[in-house]
Amino acid sequence: MTVFDWYHAWLEAWPWLHYVIAAFIVLIFLVLRKLFTRFIFAIIKMVSKHGKSPFLGNLLFAFEKPMRMLIVVLGVYFAVLYLDPRPDIMVVVNRLLRTFIIIFFGWGFFNFSGTSSDLFTRLGRKIDGDQDSMLIPFISRILRGLILVLMFTVIAMEWNYDINGFIAGLGLGGLAFALAAQDTIANFFGGVILVTEQPFKKDDWIQTPTVEGIVEDIHFRSTKVRTFEESLVTVPNSTIAHEAITNWSEMRKRQIFFYVNVKYDTPVEKLRSVSERVRQEIKQAPEIHPDEIDIYFREFEESGLALMFYYFTYETSWAKWLAIKEKYNFRILEVLHEENVEIALPGRDLYMQREEERRVSEANTDK
Description:
Blueprint: H1 3-13, H2 17-50, H3 55-62, H4 64-83, H5 87-112, H6 118-128, H7 135-158, H8 163-180, H9 182-197, E1 205-207, E2 212-218, E3 222-226, E4 232-236, H10 237-241, E5 246-247, E6 254-262, H11 268-283, E7 288-300, E8 305-313, H12 318-338, H13 355-366
Antiparallel strand pairs: 1-2, 1-5, 2-3, 3-4, 6-8, 7-8
Helix pairs in contact: 2-3, 2-4, 3-5, 4-5, 5-7, 11-12
């Protein structure tokens, strides 16, 4: 009696051992999955770090989780094969295996088309030199949507679903769908305009008639803007694409412009000295842009003599710009104090006559 004859006789005596062996096959694949993900991907990670391009490493890592799933599926498949089910059951099992293989590839390429992948990092640098551009997540979402549609289409074909009938049904209902989705389509193409023309990018400070704040993200339908009150405003793309957009983050220099009114009784020499001293100090300041510095006695205002201060800073960020403005505002106050020039307060002078003087004046007028 051979070993195989003894083995078959043993299994015939205890039929439940077939299920134990099938479970053991699944267990072996589970152990292989752990070994595969622990050692194989550790080697891939090491090789990708020393390689010239991380493209292949990123592609393989995108398939890491799908591979874990596929190994388990293969273990279950071989366990079912060992149990030798009926042919009609095997037809369904084979279809399920092919379905999971389709999901494996769709899941892997879905992960690889994420915005953090090497593919989109390089694409962002080639398109506009900025990997954080909103164009990249926008393209990523479109590509991921196409991958999902293609994956479910192939799965439907695998299960003999009539794709042609489904497409024909879409054609018949296409007009009604287009009419119902006019706003959605307009917002989608508004988003396409925003990411292609790029009037702003992520983290830019923008101002439109609708909203002002920091751009957080752009989606198919809308753009999210964080206002300075820390509220989140979601603006339809079709709205923001048709509005005048001021991108304050694109400032090359930042303006400082204000008036200071001094009293009318200020001597001309003092007024001229203040203007000249402040002008010379600001021209020599390293924080001030030298292209345009205008500090002049500008107007005869109702409340005083108006000194105009108009210049630009190199710094455009809000906090640093305020610090520079404060520094030279203090310096202007110091110069005014040193020259004994007083700031005029808005007001009016009111003159009152005594009652007796008023009567004498009226009597003289009557004569």
